[in-house]
Amino acid sequence: MMKNDEFLTMHEDEKKQLQLERLQSTLNRAYRNVPFHKKRFKELGIDLSKIESLTDLARLPFMNRQDISENYPYNLFAVPLRDIVRIHTSPGTTQNPTVSGYTPQDLSSWQTILVRALKISGVTPHDILQITLNPGLANWGRDYKYGAEALGASVIPNTPLSLEKKLMILRDYKTSALISTPASVLQLASNVRKKKIDTITFNLKTIILVGESIDQTERKTIEDALNVKTWRHYGLSEVPGPAIAFECDAHRGLHVNEDYFLPEIVDPASGKVLPDNQYGELVLTTLATRAFPLIRFRTGDRAKLIKQECSCGRGLRRIEWRGERTDDLINIDGVKVHKKQIQLNIQAALDFPLDMAKFYVKHRDEKKYLEVWIPVNEHIFSDEIKGLETLIQVAENNLFKNIGIPVSIKLKEQRRL
Questions:
Q1: What does residue 371 show for φ and ψ, rounded to 5 degrees?
Q2: Fold of the domain built from segment(s) 1-327
Q3: pTM score above 0.85
Q4: Which of 166, 254, 341, 381 has its CA 20 to 30 A from that of 115?
Q5: Which residues are bridge partners to 209 per DSSP?
Q6: Given this model, what pLDDT does residue 357 score?
Q7: Residue 99 and residue 405: Cα distance in Å, rounded?
Q8: What is the pLDDT of residue 333?
């Protein structure tokens, strides 16, 4: 393994050669050990020995979330289970959860990625770092914990806490760096303003915003209310994890960890690779992941690759990412869910078909939640409403347990939809 920042100082030709070697190794391992990849490559007549440059990647087929669901739980693993030392489960975007595995080398790679991202985002060994993420991002909490510990920072691990407890720990434990989602930090900032808490009582200087994007207005609200500097990280909530891309102190786009991930931007409709500075769908290929390789994985995130070099001088390509989607997934506080997944869960609880449902991302006390409107139709009669309200409460509780986000279900007259 290279030293943490060795890739950043390589000549451009050396970087491309390393990326190509890692890509070829990943493709060969996937072909040998994963029937899903072998079958697709054979069907398309792809000769992996002809993948001789990074541009040849465009000849390979895409992966998507449906592929992960259909190969649940272990069919996409490229190593035997005896070589897996950690198994992560996330809610996923279908009925099946997303399962990913990690070898010791994978965990070492993730630690390297996170140490780099945290250092460049202003975290030092002198910091006391607090992690506050919702249950749907519990895996990210663990990854950030191990990365920060490897950096030498003191870590307050991710634990579900009330807002009052979070504030108490921030003050009493002298937290200097915080990792959380934009929605959670906005709620924190709002509470500080409402209660007129003097930020001089805090040691907080750095906040890393993860899970969702944030616009400049909201970002300034956080920085002014809490007297901090904010940084953004980009990751995938399903696989493989956080800090795939991160901000430097220039704050002009997010640097991709290109020694571990190869980014492409494609047209969402045609799949054609788009040039730099043009928005499309972000596609990622893992370059060093042994257990769970992703080959041209369609993230569903709308982004563009920035052509211009960054003023920070680091030789990592950047993406511009604003949180927009190219698919039907909904992002709630960093957790991605599919409308169909929510609908099927509600339908199973209420035991009648849903002809139509509307989905809205809303805020309550600066906290995000999903509101689902269900039409009252011929399957629902007035004398059944009381019983349905009980079932709806059960469905809401089950959804929160299964996907880790709050959901409010409302019955609405058909004509209102």
A1: -110, 130
A2: Rossmann fold (3.40.50)
A3: yes
A4: 166
A5: 180, 232
A6: 82
A7: 19
A8: 82
